[in-house]
Please model this.
Amino acid sequence: MSKQSIKLSVDAVVFGYEEGEISVLLIKRKYDPFKGKWAIPGGFVKDYESLENAVERELHEETGVKISYLEQLYTFGKPSRDPRGRVVSVAYFGLVRPNTFKISASTDAEEVAWFNIKDLPQLAFDHKAILKIAIERLQGKITYEPIGFELLDKKFPFSDLEKLYTTLLGRDIDRRNFRKKIIGLNVLDELDEKVSKGSGRPAILFQFNQKRYFQLKKEGIIFEI
Amino acid sequence: MSKQSIKLSVDAVVFGYEEGEISVLLIKRKYDPFKGKWAIPGGFVKDYESLENAVERELHEETGVKISYLEQLYTFGKPSRDPRGRVVSVAYFGLVRPNTFKISASTDAEEVAWFNIKDLPQLAFDHKAILKIAIERLQGKITYEPIGFELLDKKFPFSDLEKLYTTLLGRDIDRRNFRKKIIGLNVLDELDEKVSKGSGRPAILFQFNQKRYFQLKKEGIIFEI
DNA sequence: ACAAAAGTGTTTTCTATACACCCATGG
DNA sequence: CCATGGGTGTATAGAAAACACTTTTGT
Model:
């Protein structure tokens, strides 16, 4: 027992949304094992550091991205998952607006990039399996929690929210019914601003009402689209 | 990195149901720290053992209970959670019929017992927090998954299922609507047997149709009562 | 015959879905 | 004036909720 030699790491699956595409943040590994392969950002937990701290630190160190709302996803512990020996990894999960961060490679990472989740490269370790579970969770979340605040700009036209949902759901939704439903949840504040996308009628801008949004999340609203 | 000294353990939160009461399986610790305090069964993961194997092994060693469907709950990693040093614990979660097991204390456990979840003793480590999350998950589960197969006898009167749900939900449900809904799911096979509970009309016995039951679970049926 | 638990249908209300036209702007 | 995307209401169908009396047994 006292000479247990399992090592503990954390991984951060960070999803972004921009212009109808869901992407995930990956790094290209600088060192072996899996040198040159793409991987989910992450690394070893320090002895007296909390898991949340470790995952935020590693994410920031490796990609330049700093987020404060990472949610625990799952713990991966298959004995053979790391060729260096026994490494158990606690995976976390977060949502961001890619345009609010400059990504930049550093320690352990030769490169950092966003990949469309429909067009992923080969991945190191068991990261393909981790991503699969993360994507399932992302898709599952939108049926029981409001999503969007973390993924959209502060102010956005309603059509952005609509497009986010059609993208995540992978199917069309009825624009009128969707709007009725969301407006009915009272999470959006309508602004006095409009924005025009080049052609067509300019759209009213909305923003999430934070208080109401996080209250809804807490209550775990069942939210069938 | 290579001298990381975090230790990894697993804990098994096992719920049982009997006669209108939800209980959880706890052990009384034989050794320090927390000698004499009640705790969730669990222990350290061996170097080349899977997490699932570790949790089933520890549960069996400490309580005599052997289950094969433990689901991962959450990983607890607060640096101060164990006075012996840094121990991160992956908690699992399972459901059983208490009457199908003989519980028996052994290594590390001075005693084993079922406790009603409404009447818990003081607990070792952060086990109170772990149990809280496990109970929330248990209550959450019944709204999106059928529950009952694991908790009820093979053959049971419909009223047992009804009582299980009222207990878990903590409120009354409409007997007619509930019955309509469950029957409509096609998960129950009606038997030709009846059972009498002393007074009143004898009840028809049902059993779960395993195939249909696990199919429903997989599909993740939304199941509002 | 009465107490105790099991069994059973119908009506009402609410929610989800389907569906098509007008509006405001830029070019 | 036309192309483009934004904005809106109503009718229908289906699901959930409300609701109370009859049946079968033991005592």
